[in-house]
Amino acid sequence: MSDKxxxxxxxxxxxxxxxxxxxxxxxFRVSIVEKECELGGxxxxxxxxxxxxxxxxxxxxxxxxxxxxxxxxxxTDVEPIEAKRVENGFTILLSDKSLLFADAVMLTTGFAPFxxxxxxxxxxxxxxxxxxxxxLENMIQAHIVPDTVSRVGxxxxxxxxxxxxxxxxxxxxxxxxxxxxxIELKQMxxxxxxxxxxxxxxxFGPGYEELYREAQERYGIKFVRGRVSxxxxxxxxxxxxxxxxxxxxxxxxxxxxxxxxxxxxEPSAGTRxxxxxxxxxxxxxxxxxxxxxxxxxxxxxxxxxFVAGTATAPMNSTxxxxxxxxxxFQVANYLNG
Amino acid sequence: xxxxxxxxxxxxxxxxxxxxxxxxxxxxxxxxxxxYEFDKANRIKILKGLFSLGTLxxxxxxxxxxxxxxxxxxxxxxxxxxxxxxxxxxALLIIVGHLESSIYQASWANTPYYSIFFxxxxxxxxxxxxxxxxGFLMDxxxxxxxxxxxxxxxxxxxxxxxxxxxxxxxxxxxxxxxGVLWSIFPLRFLAESMQSAITGHGSFLTHSTGEFFASCLxxxxxxYPLWWAYSLSLGIFFLLIPGSRYMxxxxxxxxxxxxxxxxxxxVKLGPNGELRGLSKFEVYSCSRCGIxxxxxxxxxxxxxxxxxxxxxxxxxxxxVERGNEINNCLMCGRCEELCPVDIDLNALRMMQRQDHxxxxxxxxxxxxxxSKTSPIKTGEEYSGCRKVAYFAGCMGHLTPRVIASMCNxxxxxxxxxxxxxxxxxxxCGRPLRLSGNRAAADVLMxxxxxxxxxxxxxxxxxxxxxxxxxxKEEYELPIMVMHHTEYIDMLMHCGALNIRKGKExxxxxxxxxxxxxxxxxxxxxxxxxxxxxxxxTEFDGKASLCCGGSLANTVISPIERGRIAADALxxxxxxxxxxxxxxxxxxxxxxxKVKQPxxxxxxxxxxAERC
Lengths: 337, 611
What we know:
A: alpha/beta, FAD/NAD(P)-binding domain, 2 domains, B: mainly alpha, Fumarate Reductase Cytochrome B subunit, four-stranded parallel beta sheet
């Protein structure tokens, strides 16, 4: 066994892969613990990334290759079931009974899409033609969007910025995802009418605003400022929604062939359980509480335990990868300090 | 000056007599003034009630609740015993003492003080009918009161002994009066013991302690000052009552009479925001026992110990500036359910909420009127005359699974129904009413009544307990109103639904507005018992918890609502059921805010699956 210090990265999504690769290149021994059978996390369930339309699979391939090249030990199909603080580090017992010693731990356990069943008024799981943005992404990927669809409504902020379901935060990626998916739908179904119901359009990233403009000007996608209050189903399976157009100040009713719920991000089950195992503080919203938001965002209340990516707050893939790089440096400082 | 030479007089009777007389005059004037302010209908009720069964019922209630404290016994036997010792004990001391002195004197018309200080006036060696029995009884009663006093002392040190996690924070004045009250009985005990050593009366208690005192103390010298002290403590206590919480003792009894005579609480404040009518009696009837504190989920989940009825009513009574406690209440009714004095705690708070509604012709102009062409059909326009009208309610529309289940149940039972608010309805008005905006609520109520009556249905079924309560209590509809739990129960009872019993272990969360609010407790139990296995919890029936989603509270934050929901769920699921069942769309929605340890479903969903 080498005398290199050992870092255990819990969670093998984009943040975990990048952090592991960087730490390995910085001269540490690194292991990734992933509960699924392959690396990639939520990217494995996605088709194309905004704003450039890069394939998620391409991204995953690059991340995995980098991890391989960097000589990182990858443990798949396992999750930590016990963690103990010992002198100068941690012992982590995995579900396959192997025991790891870590000088430092990096939590990259990520997010889970909001469970739309909790927003019962939109009828997800009840009406035939209500789907989530994740399902739509899969349908687009598999080219199974029925061409009979002529009118689609996309509801922004499902499970985000919604005190009624207990999530006060913005999930950041849903607005731009809606723009991206609306364009993709329009490309597939040029005659379809597409409506996006938004609270406000948060086009913060490079290229986002341009894409939003393009969606309106080139693709004729209609953006309605207002929140859908409830949905019901008619005998033909069409979804009738009630919504207020707050710019006009009038309530509207509309029938749609398909209602797409732009589900937000919630801390994943892994994020919750690992935080509990290691005694890491979480915020009221369940995401992991980082340190000083300006200079130590990747630290946690437990010295030696770091966090990166969407385990700490919703963010897009670009920010996630950058955050993981930053976290890798914080770990290195801690171990070399 | 009076000069009394009677052997039945001593100057020490004055403090007691003055205190007693002053108190009696004070409360008589006060009560007459309050009753004078009643409206005519209520005054007539008093006149009619005086010679009715209500009077007998009141006597029974006073005995059971003001003296025995039956309700408190149910909550905690030791706490009940403590209150009984003071209530029943003191009453018996007065009654039995009066009886004893009357028998000795062979006259019922004694001065009040004579029976109170009877053992002082009783000469040595005096014999009368039943003297030994009376002596024994009086000692037994005194012992009972003293034992209650011991528990009260213990309660101050460790309140959990009597099942109370929190006790009322009393103000210094009330603590002083309590001190005086607590001194009365030990002083009587000491005075009687010393007297027993001199005159030889008394029984197992005072006689034994008397002999003991005689062996070590100059009882001849001590006895007389102790009778003075006893009389003084009584007199001072009576004089201090009017400003203290002990006003509840006389007021509660009058309140019980008024209530049983059918006097109704006026739900509006006077023109200057002052209390009127029965509400004054209710406010003064609060004994500040603090039982409401431990029921309040704002205290148990949010650690807020300032808004509970005990403190709220104190502020109302003293007319001090009220803060947000008027609106910071879930109105779940858990406190009201266990209030030993049966005070209308929710109504008293509701009446303090101000009506801010501004209703003009424009306000509700968006609601189509029935006369114009509108999506709302009248009875004749529907095909055939259907007997059942279904109203999902605004919250019902946010839980489409409930609506789908109800439609499914109607179809399986072969019931033809009008779905009144299928394409959207009007709010029942209760949320407005709960926030004080009664005028606006009335407008919505009128519009809804038109629509309901126009269906020509005989039964109105609603899925929302909030709508249900307002349809039932405020609307005065000419047709029968049922919540869907009751309706399903009825369908099952008459064999219209063929239910397959499952093995799921179910806990029922009875919504506040349904169980405590509308007294619907058995129907859901019968329905659930038929579809699965009921797991009993300590929160069954009217002891149910609030989900935290209450529309009545306009102060707490969504996160605080989530905390109440999470606490309630963890208390419901400690017996590890397969599912928590409720019957209110709002409860279901509010529980959806937090991580659910088990699925939360509406009773109609489970029934629809199993019929």
